[in-house]
Amino acid sequence: MCWSDCLLEILEEVRVFSFDVNIGISIFTASTSCRLDLNYLLRLQERLKTMYERDMYRFCLESELFKIDMDRKKNGIILSQIHLVDNLTGDTLDVRYEFDQSFLPELIAELTYE
């Protein structure tokens, strides 16, 4: 999964984070554009950090256009489900995948906003 063309805007006193998502698995590729309240992204970063540092085993964050559900198994494998809704067409994209928890620090670093 690749996030690109990230932009932080302030709309009506709300910090909005917009980005394009491109997901490729084998021969299948899908992409969409998203806009989220920046607080949503900060909560995602916080939950990932807690999952890695404090052995939290499950969390789900949901907004109108983006939902992420992560479930960490005792062996360190994280099952992830992402649901995206294209804000222009209403088309949906659901992706399920798994990865090892050792990638969490890298993911957290990529999401860090400074």
Describe the protein's architecture and organization.
With 114 residues, this protein is an alpha+beta fold. Helix content is 21%, strand content 54%. The protein has helices spanning 38-53, 104-111; strands spanning 2-11, 14-25, 28-37, 58-62, 66-72, 77-85, 92-100. It has a four-stranded antiparallel β-sheet, with helices on one face. The chain has a three-stranded antiparallel β-sheet with strand order 1-2-3. Helix 1 runs antiparallel to helix 2 (104-111). The mean pLDDT is 78.
What is the secondary structure topology, with strand pairs?
Layout (H helix, E strand, L loop, with lengths): L1 E10 L2 E12 L2 E10 H16 L4 E5 L3 E7 L4 E9 L6 E9 L3 H8 L3
Antiparallel strand pairs: 1-2, 2-3, 4-5, 5-6, 6-7
Helix pairs in contact: 1-2
- Radius of gyration using CA atoms only: 14 Å
Order of helices and strands: EEEHEEEEH
What is the total tally of β strands? 7
The number of helices is: 2
Main β-sheet, spatial strand arrangement:
4-5-6-7
Secondary structure class reads alpha+beta
Average pLDDT works out at 78
The profile of the biggest β sheet is: 4 strands, antiparallel
- Any low-confidence stretches, pLDDT <50, length ≥5? none
Proportion in β-strands:
over 45%
The protein's oligomeric status is single chain
Distance between the termini: 22 Å
- Helix proportion range: 10-25%
